[in-house]
Structures are given as structure tokens and as C-alpha cells.
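hey can u check if this looks right to u? its 217 residues, i copy pasted from the old doc so theres a chance i mangled smth
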Amino acid sequence: MTLREDQIMSEAGPAYKLIGAIHGKAVFNRRARVLSDKIESLLPQGGRILDVGTGDGTIASLWQRNRPDLRIEGIDVLVRKDTNIPVRVFDGRTIPYDNNSWDVVTFVDVLHHTHEVERLLSEAARVARSRVVIKDHFAENALDRTTLRFMDWVGNAPHGVVLPYNYLSRTLWRKTFSQAMLELRSLDERIPLYSFPFNLVCGRGLHFIAQLRPSLT
């Protein structure tokens, strides 16, 4: 049974609530704006967009606000009490839609929260007609993984998000794309999520946005 966010937050205690409030002021708004602008440019005119692991739908709602031509819905294993776009629950393994039923499937900082990366990408390749867009992380060494674990915990622990810290290297990402029948079309590593001096620690090549094409279509 999936816990709703209000249940989780009531059990998490004031410390998590404080961390969430600080993160929101210091990072969340800038992150949402930057990622919205970057990903929006990759979405086709009049497209139907499925955002997997959408959370509260903040970033997807910015696409919708700036691009009223888009139809956007979300799915998540944890449906929050208040969401900015329509969100449907799913089991975290199988995307509950028919083949080629959406123009674009997006994953924004989602795939490192699961051990089912290849399966979910294969599902996205099945469901997407034209492209799959991923925002996630590169982890090449122990320092990268430690930094990402800290950022992940600060941003997600207050919301009860599962944190397996499953970060992949560049080599593993490319292998996983290939196994999921996805062809890499573009890779953007210049993502200014943090202002100086935080970018020196939390930036430094840890983030990417990949645009992929299902190779079965």
C-alpha cells in the first residue's frame, strides 16, 4: 500500500520539514526554472508528454504554462496530496499505456531512484512515438557518489521518496540506453542548476539531459 505524502510528512518530524523548507528556498525554484527551460526546448509542437516520476508536477506544469499546445500528464509510485498536473499511480515497473501512445516520455531526476532503470527505459521506448528525454546524473567516482547522495537526501527525504542512490557512470548509461533500444540523439551537460560557489561542489559535470529516440520506430 502506498503512503500518501501527508501521512509521510506527519511521521517524518519537524527536522525533515525544516530541511524541505530550506531546500525549497535555496535550490528548488532555480532548479525547476532551469530544467523547465532546457527540457521544454526538446518537446515537439502539439506533443503529448508523459512525465514519469513527476512528483508534484512543478516542472511539467511550467512546460504546460509556457506551451499551451502541449498535453501533459504524470505517473508516479507515490501520488502526492496536491499536484500541479494530473498524476496517475503506477507500480514503478510497467508504464500503464499502450505502445506508441505518447509523443514523448520524460524522466526528470527519477531513474536513480530505482533499480529498474533498463526496464523503465524499455517501457519508455515502447510507449514513446518520437523521443525519450532524461535528466539524471553521472557518477564516475566515490566523490561523485557521495555528493549525489547528499543532494538526493536533502531534496527527497522530506517527501518520503525511496533513495536507493543508484547512480550510473557515462559508460553504464550508454550501455543501458542501447539495451533499452534507445538511440542517443543529444547530450547536454551544461546545466546551471546552482549559483556560485555551490556549483563548484554540486555542479562539476554531475548532471546531464539526454534526448533519445526509440530505435524500434
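DSSP finds seven helices and seven strands in the chain.
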